[in-house]
Amino acid sequence: MQLDDLLGRHAEAWAAATNHPFLTGVRDGTLPPADFAEWLVQDHHFVADLLAFQARLLARAPRHAQAVLAAGAVALVDELTWFEDKAAQLGLDLTAAPGPATLAYRELLRKLDAGPVDDALVGLWAIERAYLDAWTFAAPGAPAFREYVEHWTAPGFAGYVAGLAEAAGDGPANDAVFAAVAAAEAAFWGPAK
Fold first, then answer.
1. For the chain, how many structural domains are there in total?
2. How many CA atoms lie within 13 A of 173 on its CB side?
3. Which of 164, 170, 171, 178 would be a feasible disulfide site paired with 125, CB 3.0-4.6 Å?
4. Where in the sequence is the domain holding 13, given as residue range(s)?
């Protein structure tokens, strides 16, 4: 089974995860800046959780997946620094408590971490593919958000997602894992308004 088949089989859930009203607000400029700032703090928590998950996944991954996972972990370290710089510019408190959707995503990462490596690889690909598809949907972004959209749709990120697909492509594509990631992504953007 090809990973892209999951996108078709779960088209409605994927659309909810990647074409969310939050992203429409980023694209057309109707998202209140305070909502974006709150989301940015939560995304910082998520990236820290994802780095820990990915580091553990690297340690147990098959050899063919290690290079892309290692590169991704380095990129996540850089991403955390970028978040810290943005938070300083915007006066955001990155120590604010994780919200319910962030904690739920943390639990999903814990489950992936405890499960088969093939499921964890599919889950990581789905997470990063959702992020790429979501920000591509929001492109080019209203002026207030454009630099963020450009950052999260850079060609290097698209190449990374393709590398994850290759790394996960040897194992079974778990529909339950894919559906769980899609649901977590949709919830992470916040309630549809």
1. 1
2. 19
3. 164
4. 3-189
CATH code of 173's domain: 1.20.910.10
d(CA 29, CA 32): 8
Model pLDDT for residues 147-167, shown as the tens digit of each residue: 999 999 999 999 999 999 999
CA–CA distance, 175 with 28 (Å, rounded to integer): 33
How far, in Å, CA of 128 to CA of 153, rounded?
11
Predicted TM-score (pTM) of this structure = 0.95
Residue type, position 149, single letter: V
DSSP class per residue in the chain: --HHHHHHHTHHHHHHHHS-HHHHHHHHT-S-HHHHHHHHHHHHHHHHHHHHHHHHHHHHS-HHHHHHHHHHHHHHHHHHHHHHHHHHHHT--TTSPP-HHHHHHHHHHHHHHHS-HHHHHHHHHHHHHHHHHHHHHHTT--TTTHHHHHHTT-HHHHHHHHHHHHHHTTS---HHHHHHHHHHHHHHH----
